[in-house]
Structures are given as structure tokens and as C-alpha cells.
């Protein structure tokens, strides 16, 4: 009870299956006494591009623009753009980050990748000497909840897509674990568009059930073995 949850949601249509998963998470977690914040990226018209506009005021080096250096320097002096500061505040306050999205091309949608690119700046989320288990966002949990177009068989070791865990490596390990965030088992709804209405209802029920005991879960072992064994 009293936990803070940030759901970063990347789908254009509230009536979509992803929209239903979002609604369930908000309702179920609120019912548990959590305070839930949603960043609905499409509704917010979130800017996914990492540009000069992310820095307010002077540049550290006006001769040649280096986004990583400039955002790091801007973060230190409180010179990041308002939208970034707002998202960082939400992340800072959250005990749990849930990312809800449809898988696009073995990856997260561009608008969500842009959120990662822009919000998780050096100095805020990591420092080069403070990464992975030493990352700056320790004591937080994350969970990737997403839908796929392909079936579970396609995303298996024997399937054409290979093990789904290969896809999770850059997201869970390369971003979250790099920033010190612990990672819960992903929640994957395979091919909701291609299954029966009953099966879809089962998927939604399974998500509701999982959320009921979410806080008792142990994070995954954040090591290459989990992904590639």
C-alpha cells in the first residue's frame, strides 16, 4: 500500500487491447492503495526526437552539438526542457515503472524509445561509473507489458522469431538494468488480434490476477544467462 506507480503507455487507441491492459493496471493498482500516474505518450504528443530543444539556455559547446554531453550539463544546472523535467520527476517518485506497448519490429514503438532516449539522461539515470547494479535509479522496479503480432510459437527457440528474451535484452538489460532498475518478469500477450474473444478475456484476467500479487514477486536475475541460456 502507498506505493507509487508510473505507467508509460504507448498506444494510439484507448479502445485497443493495450488500452484495456492499461485500464486494468490503473484500476487494480489504485484499488490496492497505490498512487498511479500515467504518461500517455500519444495523447501527450510526446516528442520522441532528441534535439537541441531539450536544452534551455546556453550550450556547453556551441561549436559542435553533442546531445549526451549537453543534456548531462543541462541536467546538472537545471537547464533541461520542461517536458523532460516533468517526466524525470515522475520516474524519481515511482517505486514501479510499467511500460505498456505493442511490439513494433522486435522493439518498442518509436515514441516510447524516444521517451527512453530523452528522459533517462546521464546524471539523472546513470553515470558512466555508476551503471548496472550501481545505476542511479536503484530501489525501483520495472515491468515491460506488451502485445505481439506473432504467436508464442513464433517467439520460441525453435520459432522463426527466436526466443522472445533476445528482444527483451536491449530493453530490460540495456536500458533498465543499466540505470540500476530491477526488472520483473515481462508480461507478454501473444497475438491478441488473432485469437478468440474468450482467449482475449483470459489474457485480461491473467493480467488482473498477476497485478494482485505483483509486490510479492522477485525480480529476474539480471544477467546475460537469463536472456541467452
* Domain module tally: 1
- Kindly report the CATH topology: Rossmann fold
Q: What do the pLDDT scores average to?
A: 96
| End-to-end gap | 36 Å
Shape: globular
Please, what is the oligomeric state? single chain
User: What is the annotated CATH architecture?
Assistant: 3-Layer(aba) Sandwich
Give a quick account of the main beta sheet: strands, pairing sense, barrel closure.
6 strands, parallel
What level of helicity do the residues show?
Answer: 25-40%
Strand residue percentage: 5-15%
- Cα-atom Rg, whole angstroms? 18 Å
Low-confidence stretches: none
Please count the helical segments.
Answer: 7
Q: Which structural class matches the secondary elements?
A: alpha/beta
Order of helices and strands: EHEHHEHEHEEHH
Note down, in words, how this protein is organized.
The protein is α/β, with parallel strands linked by helices and 229 residues long. It has a single domain, classed as Flavodoxin domain (Rossmann fold), CATH 3.40.50.360. Helix content is 36%, strand content 14%. The chain has seven helices and six strands. The protein has helices at 17-31, 67-77, 82-93, 110-119, 164-176, 197-212, 224-228, and strands at 4-9, 35-40, 96-102, 141-147, 182-183, 187-189. Strands 1, 2, 3, 4, 5 and 6 form a six-stranded parallel β-sheet that branches. Strand 3 (96-102), helix 4 (110-119) and strand 4 form a beta-alpha-beta unit. Helix 1 packs parallel to helix 6. The longest helix has 16 residues, at 197-212. The chain is globular, with a radius of gyration of 18 Å. The two termini are 36 Å apart.
Amino acid at each position: 500500500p502507498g506505493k507509487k506507480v508510473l505507467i508509460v503507455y504507448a498506444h494510439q487507441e484507448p479502445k485497443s487491447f493495450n488500452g484495456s491492459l492499461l485500464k486494468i493496471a490503473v484500476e487494480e493498482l489504485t484499488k490496492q492503495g497505490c498512487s498511479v500516474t500515467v504518461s500517455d505518450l500519444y495523447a501527450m504528443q510526446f516528442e520522441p526526437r532528441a534535439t537541441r530543444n531539450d536544452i534551455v539556455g546556453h550550450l556547453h559547446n556551441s561549436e559542435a552539438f553533442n546531445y549526451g554531453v549537453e543534456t548531462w550539463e543541462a541536467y546538472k544546472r537545471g537547464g533541461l526542457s520542461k517536458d523532460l523535467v516533468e517526466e524525470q520527476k515522475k520516474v524519481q517518485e515511482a517505486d514501479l515503472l510499467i511500460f505498456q506497448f505493442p511490439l513494433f519490429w522486435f522493439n518498442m514503438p518509436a515514441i516510447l524509445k524516444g521517451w527512453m532516449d530523452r528522459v533517462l539522461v546521464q546524471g539523472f539515470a546513470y553515470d558512466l561509473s555508476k551503471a548496472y547494479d550501481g545505476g542511479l535509479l536503484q530501489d525501483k522496479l520495472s515491468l515491460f507489458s506488451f502485445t505481439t503480432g506473432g504467436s508464442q510459437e513464433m517467439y520460441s527457440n525453435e520459432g522463426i522469431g527466436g526466443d522472445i528474451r533476445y528482444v527483451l535484452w536491449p530493453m530490460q538489460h540495456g536500458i533498465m538494468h543499466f540505470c540500476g532498475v530491477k526488472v520483473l518478469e515481462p508480461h507478454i500477450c501473444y497475438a491478441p488480434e488473432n485469437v478468440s474473444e474468450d482467449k482475449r478475456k483470459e489474457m485480461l484476467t491473467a493480467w488482473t490476477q498477476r497485478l494482485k500479487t505483483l509486490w510479492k514477486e522477485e525480480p529476474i536475475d539480471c544477467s546475460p544467462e537469463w536472456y541467452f541460456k
